[in-house]
Amino acid sequence: MGRSAQCPDTWLVVLGSISLIAWFLLLRHGSSLVIPALCSASSLRALPLLASFNLAVAFGTPAQLASDWALMVVAMMLPLIIASLRHVRDRSFARRRARATLLFLLGYVLVWMTAGFVLQVMAFAARWAVPAPLLCFGVVVATAILWQVSPAKQLCLNRCHRRPHLAAFDLAADRDAFAFGLMNGASCVGSCWALMLTLVVSQGHALGMVAVTLFAFGERLEGPAPLAWRWRGPFKALRIAAAQASLWLTTQGRTSKRIVES
Questions:
Q1: What are the boundaries of each domain within the chain?
Q2: Where are the alpha helices (DSSP H) in the chain?
Q3: Which one of 109, 153, 157, 166 counts the least CB within 10 Å of its CB?
């Protein structure tokens, strides 16, 4: 079930365009990735956690939070699923390819939207328990670092690389594409939740979103690895960037030398 002979990379152009539009909207209009209305008010600290959360939701805009989160997922996460989407499309007949792609994306986004609600609650609980913004952010960053070096993080990363068998016909094909989206989304959430929590607590600053996206994308270039306590990062991406920079500098040096000699 090969790719379309006419225009094999059109879907990549569409995917990239959608992600860029989402980034444009995020950077232009900003976002509200944490319940903003009352979560930093000192008066909420005197209330029980559940009552504080209910009050913040009552005065906040859940629809806006959901739309901002969805926009952020589209902007940040679409680049991470290129390999998984290619697997879906390569194993789908041409007439079912668009349908399989949409079903995969539906499952993937559904998991991330659910995770968004959980992360909102976690962020609110953290800011309720530790009202000082810098201290709260420090606690969340420490949690993210601990998760980053844990074997559980590696387990999630390994599952992000899974490419399951997908049925080719009828309802079985639809079911497998949707289930793969759910599975891939759950693995991605497991890998990235701590990094995303830092964004939610910091209310989604643009530079933070860009940094997390680049880090996660570079990290995804690494292959599966044994489970162990160790630091993980986008080392392969850094090596590629360093090699490209070295090649460019060498080329520029040779060009300059030829100009001088001539």
A1: 10-231, 234-262
A2: 10-29, 49-59, 62-77, 82-90, 97-129, 133-148, 151-160, 170-201, 206-220, 235-261
A3: 109
Choose among 33, 207, 61, 215: nearest CA to 127: 33
Q: Can you tell me the distance from the alpha carbon of 189 to that of 208, in angstroms, rounded to the nearest whole number? A: 17
| Contact status, residue 99 vs residue 44, Cβ threshold 8 Å | no
Report how far residue 10's alpha carbon sits from residue 138's, in angstroms, rounded to the nearest whole number: 43
Q: Which is nearest to 14 in space by CA: 63, 111, 76, 82? A: 82
> Is the confidence at residue 138, as pLDDT, over 90?
yes
Q: What is the pLDDT of residue 253?
A: 77
Which residue, 151, 193, 166, is CA-closest to 90? Answer: 166
Residue type, 182: L
Residues whose CB falls within 8 Å of the CB of residue 117, separated by 6 or more in sequence, listed in order: none
Of 176 and 9, more confident: 176
Any idea how long the chain is? 262
Is the distance from CB of 22 to CB of 75 less than 8 angstroms?
Answer: yes
Would you state the structure tokens that stand for residue 150, as one six-digit string?
A: 């844990």
